[in-house]
Amino acid sequence: FADLGITHIFVNDVDITGEDALLSNIGFVINDDVSLSNMTLVADKSIGQLIYVSGDNVVISGMDISYAVGDEESSAIYVYDSENVNIVNNEIVFESHVTTDKEAMAINVLGSSDVVISNNNITASLPAINSNWGLYFSYGMMGISDVHAVKIMKSEDVDFTKNNVITFYNEYVLTAYSPTIESVLIVDSDIVNVDYNNFTVIDEETPIGSPAYLYALTMGIANDAVISNNNFNMATDGGVDAMGSAYAIQFVTSNVDIIG
What we know:
By secondary structure, the protein is mainly beta. About 0% of the residues lie in helices and about 60% in strands. The chain is built from no helices and 24 strands. It has a 15-stranded parallel β-sheet that branches. Strands 1-3-5-8-11-14-17-20-23 form a nine-stranded parallel β-sheet, with no helix packed on it. The protein is globular, with a radius of gyration of 18 Å. It starts with 7 loop residues before the first strand and ends with a strand.
């Protein structure tokens, strides 16, 4: 299905099994008690949040999602103020070319609880832009980028397990003082389990001898968090005079147990 004159399908209290159906430049707005599975979503222009979840008891599984946007704020999956959401066994490819002050991420979870993100292959191609210091000043003076493969914020009871997360620089912004990519950001969240994931962050764009800040996993103001059995692969030619390089894990004011 394509060119239907709509950007989103609104669903509530329904199970949708795509049986390998393909939707082009069409997303979903999901309310309570919805299961969405076995579909291919392809979007090559911005329609905002490709899948917007604002309800409880939601399952997104077996989806093949490809979303490429330019300089627009967007997410492939956005979960807002929801409870009991499962995002499992999906293939998600997300590409963004935002410049500044616009959020872009494959998965964005905000103000939600009982969220499971597991067994997904997530590939994000993102620009390295300035950290946003002002917006997050209350979070222990963290400098946080607006681009991520995954962001989890103001949420609780989150399992992030057995995912393969690959993040690529797609542009080095020469005007950025602190060109930053945080692949997975978990901030102001409680009871978070990060287990058996593979994190890869690859920067082939930063010139040798130039500043670059790569973070595979950043946690800020996180309580009762456990990080265990994860693998990290980082690569860049950047970094100069204490102005960044590649960091597997960054913590700010968090209560975290690291195991394995």
